[in-house]
Amino acid sequence: xxxxxxxxxxxxxxxxxxxxxxxxxxxxxxxxxxxxxxxxxxxxxxxxxxxxxxxxxxxxxxxxxxxxxxxxxxxxxxxxxxxxxxxxxxxxxxxxxxxxxxxxxxxxxxxxxxxxxxxxxxxxxxxxxxxxxxxxxxxxxxxxxxxxxxxxxxxxxxxxxxxxxxxxxxxxxxxxxxxxxxxxxxxxxxxxxxxxxxxxxxxxxxxxxxxxxxxxxxxxxxxxxxxxxxxxxxxxxxxxxxxxxxxxxxxxxxxxxxxxxxxxxxxxxxxxxxxxxxxxxxxxxxxxxxxxxxxx
Length: 296
Ligand SMILES: [Mn+2]
Known about the structure:
This protein is an alpha/beta fold. The protein has a seven-stranded mixed beta sheet. A five-stranded mixed beta sheet has the order 6-7-8-10-9, covered by helices on one side. It has a two-stranded antiparallel ribbon with strand order 13-14. It has helices at residues 23-32, 57-71, 126-135, 139-156, 164-168, 172-192, 286-295, and strands at 4-11, 33-41, 75-79, 93-95, 98-101, 103-108, 111-116, 197-200, 207-213, 216-222, 231-236, 239-244, 275-277, 283-285. The model has no long low-confidence stretch (mean pLDDT 82). It contains seven helices and 14 strands. It folds into two domains: 4-250, Purple Acid Phosphatase, chain A, domain 2; 268-296, no CATH class. The structure holds manganese (II) ion.
């Protein structure tokens, strides 16, 4: 199957490393496209839920397909979410055409497009979202800090981290209201910042709609997720559309069943020390050597 050329693809909430993840479908989709830019908008690798033992080959295959796109020349931007917040400490690194960040603004055909995961709204009321807008460029980073701090406190007192899914599990009515609030808050912020488009993930609710307030209007988009909806956003011919995975489309090219198990590691890495020759042939563990070099 020839790869479909797409200008920009936004995917979010793959939750690799959890039982709900549809890795096979993600692999099929990734193999069918050739995007110029692939934005992974948060919650890609789930560091909250995964027991460290559960990371099947199919999930590894997803990472392999992303790497493959990188080597084919796609630009890949990984925006952190709450389930992969462990990556936030490495934010704003760039390695070749791969970039890791907490948020981004893209200009596409002259339209300013603001992209972020959206978990910052979990511990945020509408009032503080307004404040965030006034804080300008650093507001988002500040909110991430506040959220991390709240979660750190919750864990310190033995409670679970605050999360959207926890919040809305209680009732459907609440969920609908919360989703409405989420979309409205994102839109209001984007309008205040004078963006044309705002793209989020996080709430697992694919969406494309124009939201108007008394201050203006913005197109709100959400890439949905790959747990229930199996959706992404695609930008082509100057237009954003919601892509919906359809297994019929892939019936002719079924992904080979990935059943094989990972080979057993035959070394115990904790027991491996790396040595490096120093002056005079003295051997020392690499960690000690690096410390020495840093101190010199
Ligand atoms: Mn999330």
